[in-house]
Amino acid sequence: MKVNITETILRDANQSLIATRMPFSDFEEILETLDQAGYYSLECWGGATFDSCLRYLDEDPWERLRKIKSKVKNTKLQMLFRGQNILGYKHYPDDVVRKFVAHAAKNGIDIFRIFDALNDFRNIETAVDEVKKQGKHAQGCICYTTSPIHNLEKYAAMGKQLEKMGVHSICIKDMAGIMGPQEAYDLVKALKESVKLPVYLHTHSTTGLGPITYAKAIEAGCDGIDTAISSFSGGTSQPPTETMNYAIKQMGYETSLNEKTLKKINDYFKTLRTGYISSGLMDPFVMGTETDALVYQVPGGMLSNLISQLKAQNAIDKLEEVLEETPRVRKDMGYPPLVTPMSQMVGVQAATNVLSGERYKTISKEIKSYVKGEYGQAPGEIDSELMKKVLGDEKPMTHRFADDMEPAFEKTKKELQGIARNDEDVLSYIAFPQIAETFFKKREERESKTVNYTITRK
């Protein structure tokens, strides 16, 4: 049996360890080597890459994708797509979701890994349908978490739902690295017995469980895993590519990876890592093992956000209290999986509860929207006191929030006449209005300063 390996260095490893601050120029010359390594796919787009390109790197994310595609001819390019949220934190209307998928496909994405933070699959239907219409691979996700209401039967039922929707494969997405080896074995086995689709597993090394979890998942029939080249692996990133490749082959499976090419890739990124550490961009904190996540279920990105938030308010001494409050808030909210945007919402509310000295004295607008049902169906019962505080006598929404939304693409395109150069600019603006506007202005300034001249010889 062959195990497919997806390399995350261009997206999740970069996002997990250096907050997605790796510019295209840093990895451009290694792209052709990455393409020759024998990977099943290269995850290179989606998640925070879009926001980071526009906000920090002064790069057009669409242009970045086209440049990657021009160098990567043999390996599929993969992106992470947040269902109705696309790659932001709020829901967008269906016309925008479809337009985004169509342009991502046109510019080079082959595999769309699509998830909803609440596993409310009504919120991924439009994206899945459009990916299929574009002739690309739709991979539906199950966001993994543990709670009194999550069990194998529930996850197997989710797998059947995704299969019925027509996805081409299923990915179990373990954002916090909390899945243990036995849980992985049992869950993969349950899904393989429930559906006829390939099953992939995504985890992080945060708790140190990653490599053993992957090994047991493969024993149960897992078709593919996500890894990061070793110099950018471990900590809040993924388990190392070379280590997993070695172990998988020793277990009697094939991978298609070429060890000599992997060494070239790792040597290249090792040099980059040295520079990132010395500049302070890569913090040793995110490179270690954090077993507290097994207790609090806090993913690495969420933990670093909490630390920044508390430092900014001179309250870092309250971190332990905030971590203890986090599972309580999650319980009150009906046990949502801690994945974007839920992880940020739960974390911010836990911090607010601790710092104000009174639980839910102040409730964030995002939590209010969640309680109202705008993010989708909560996995479990929301605490009745919290419901009453937010809704009063109102009833929460039971239909899909996007059904209430007016089409937005053509309207926004008209508004941006003379500012947006193409449909991709319009989509960038819809996703991140202020950041995109600043980017467009900078782009104009940069280009107006470029002087073209010719030398004539006499």
TrEMBL record:
EC assignment: 2.1.3.1
GO MF terms, alphabetically ordered: methylmalonyl-CoA carboxytransferase activity; pyruvate carboxylase activity
Keywords for the protein's UniProt record, in alphabetical order: Transferase
Single Gene Ontology BP annotation: gluconeogenesis
InterPro entries (alphabetical): Aldolase_TIM (IPR013785), Carboxylase_cons_dom (IPR003379), PCB-like (IPR055268), PYR_CT (IPR000891)
Transmembrane segments: none
Recorded GO CC terms: cytoplasm
Record Pfam families: HMGL-like, PYC_OADA
Keyword Transferase carried by entry: yes
Protein name (record): Methylmalonyl-CoA carboxyltransferase 5S subunit
Organism field: bioreactor metagenome
